[in-house]
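quick q for whoever's on today - can somebody do inverse folding on this one?? i tried earlier but teh output was garbage lol. tokens:
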């Protein structure tokens, strides 16, 4: 795991993909415009793993690649560079995605009544599914009763509120 005081780029890379991502990120921070082969050499990772990490970070707009001709070998290679200025933007986008999913889940919880038999092994079912099954649990056959989902609603609403506050503090 990255240290608490490490560069935010390295910390985000580690959160995305673990140790391999952290090694590649640290290598990129030490040596701007490094090739995938140079990164593989400095990290001890296999070239295909380095490329996987680089393409993923590139897809997330956290790094950029410049295509240059390798004079020794005669073919084109990419030189990779961090886009540390994009780290905050990436984090904000992730928070927005999480908030959208939480809001969808909260809307679903608010719009639905759920029924449950009381057994910990069984899942709750919607009113429509309970009605279709004559209010018998599809797993164990027990009687389905209305289950309050107030705790779930409050938990989703609280998390949405926390993320909203957090996003407002950044700006």
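ok took a stab at it. sequence:
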């Amino acid at each position: 795991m990255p240290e608490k005081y490490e560069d935010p780029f390295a910390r985000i890379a580690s959160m995305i993909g673990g140790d391999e991502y952290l090694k590649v990120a640290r290598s990129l921070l030490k040596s701007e415009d490094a090739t995938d082969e140079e990164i593989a050499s400095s990290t001890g990772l296999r070239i295909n793993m380095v490329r996987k990490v680089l393409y993923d970070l590139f897809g997330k707009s956290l790094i950029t690649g410049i295509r240059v001709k390798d004079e020794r070998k005669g073919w084109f290679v990419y030189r990779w560079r961090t886009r540390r200025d994009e780290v905050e933007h990436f984090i904000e986008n992730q928070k927005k995605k999480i908030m959208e999913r939480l809001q969808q889940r909260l809307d679903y919880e608010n719009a639905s009544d759920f029924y449950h038999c009381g057994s910990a092994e069984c899942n709750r079912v919607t009113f429509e599914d309970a009605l279709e099954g004559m209010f018998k649990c599809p797993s164990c056959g027990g009687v389905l009763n209305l289950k309050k989902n107030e705790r779930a609603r409050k938990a989703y609403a609280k998390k949405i509120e926390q993320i909203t506050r957090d996003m407002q503090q950044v700006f």
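fwiw Helices lie at 8-17, 19-30, 36-43, 47-59, 87-111, 127-132, 150-170. also The mean pLDDT is 91. so keep that in mind when u check it
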